[in-house]
Known about the structure:
By secondary structure, the protein is mainly beta. Helix content is 9%, strand content 39%.
Amino acid sequence: MEKGEYYVGDLCYVLDSYTWDRLCDLRCAGYEPLDGELELPDGRRVAVFQTAYGDGVYEGSCGGNYLVDSGSIGCIKVSDLSPEYQDDSSWGHFIEFDDDFTVESDDGVIRIGHVEIDTN
């Protein structure tokens, strides 16, 4: 993903209902939900991964908690959020990534750059 300031958490809290529905459509195109980097129809990039045990509260390596209601955790650039969501980090965290970064999930551990969230 490209460097910058990102919201990291459950994307259902920071995407409007239309955009959330488009993301769900992209992820649910096959038998298994797609995980990883995805491009929304309007060109915005997101990354999203299923949690190991669905909804709940998961602790991240930076000490913060991530509240999950969609069974997934992801990231999106803050500048790609609607203005009403750009200053509310009550559900996740705003994190600055100084360099381009990778995203992955392995055995329930979601890694977004230097942030690690163990959902297992």
